[in-house]
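Quick one:
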Amino acid sequence: MHVTGTTEHDAHWRLRRSFGNANDFHRFEPETDLDKGEIWIHSLPGPALVLGSTQPESLLLPASQRHRDEQQEVTRRRSGGGVVALNPAIDCWIDIFLPISHPRWDPDVGRSFHWVGQAWRRALSDRLLPSDADVQVVGRPERRYKRPLVCFADRGHGEVIVDDRKVVGLSQRRTRSFARIQTLFLARWDPSPITSHIDPVNAANHGFDGPLTSGAGGTDVVAAGLPAYLEVPTAELLIEATVNELVRPAGIE
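Output:
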């Protein structure tokens, strides 16, 4: 992983850009004496399939049965429970490292997601999407499945819904000194990177459920992503608008 740029925004925030595979960025740790919040905008060299923290590798089909480009990276993250397919051409990955001394720190894990979701909501509703788009932040988790195979098939604290479709997923990992809040804007729902790598029978045997394991509608079931009638904002517009909202001082909403 390479850090390609660093900007000191103000006394509370540092902005960083990085490039590299998903595995390296998921395992990246900030400096132990993190002195301010850091917003990382990460770019991938190619598509990646990321298993959730509790998903075993036995969910994967044997390599001989996979139907897509074998150059696609397959890895695991340390937060969240469902698999995510990353498309670097249209998706946007922004992570936040928040030291416990930061004004945005909240000891309540669930509540700590909401300011991030509200920042994404404002960026989308005020700057990037048509005024009639219904952009909402999830207040309480809406569990549709007991153990969803696909991350975006369920809805958690602070996640962002556009016209009843989840478009921003959030997950979090905490240490004694900082929290890492991971955010992903999923532009379009494409099940093929998942169905070409995951064995639905093994997924069901492990207790994972959802549209890709139920057999009811199969790959035609829409999990998430912007509706087709809404244009996908460019990555740079997404980054600019969202970062501007994330660095807004606490209490000025």
